[in-house]
Specification:
Length: about 170
């Protein structure tokens, strides 16, 4: 709800804030990557009043070592329990396993992860990228062999930021 409200707030104030309402994206790291990927895959249903019918679909997503799936084989269990509870239904797990929610309307997405991530399995990014590819969505996936979870705090900024900025430039944002 909060993420949808943020998109709505930005777009409804775009003129006053000198923001292009067609260039509103989001970035999410780790569990925040799940929030971002949820907004990018669940945008067709408004969870807040939206009488002006403001578009809730982000124009792009950047997902950094994201939690994507709620399936036990991939998920970060703490994130799953915090979001869905201790024994969620299969329907709820599937609904919030965002690799299953990708369609051709999912926004262009940049993903980055480390192969040695010991907190969030790198396959979260890989399965999401594969779903994006299957649906014809522009996407980039950059994997670093080492750096573990939170690598953006340890690797030189240009090593990971230049790739991200390049994606944004190629997508016209």
């Amino acid at each position: 709800m909060d993420a949808q409200q943020a998109i709505k707030l930005i777009r409804s104030n775009a003129v006053n804030w000198n923001v292009n309402p067609a260039r509103v994206g989001l970035i999410g790291y780790s569990a925040g990557g799940h929030l971002a990927s949820t907004l990018g895959t669940h945008f067709s249903k408004s969870y807040n009043p939206n009488k002006d019918n403001i578009g809730l679909r982000p124009d792009f997503m950047i997902l950094v070592y994201p939690v994507i799936s709620m399936n036990d084989q991939l998920t970060h269990m703490g994130s799953k329990i915090n979001l869905l509870g201790i024994e969620p239904s299969k329907e709820k797990v599937d609904l919030f396993s965002n690799e299953f929610q990708v369609n051709k309307e999912t926004p262009p997405t940049y993903l980055t992860h480390c192969g040695d991530d010991s907190i969030v399995d790198v396959n979260n990014s890989i399965v999401f990228y594969q779903a994006l590819q299957k649906n014809g969505v522009h996407a980039e996936l950059h994997l670093f062999p080492k750096g573990n979870h939170g690598f953006t705090q340890r690797l030189p900024v240009n090593e990971w930021m230049d790739q991200m900025l390049g994606f944004m430039k190629r997508e016209g944002v």
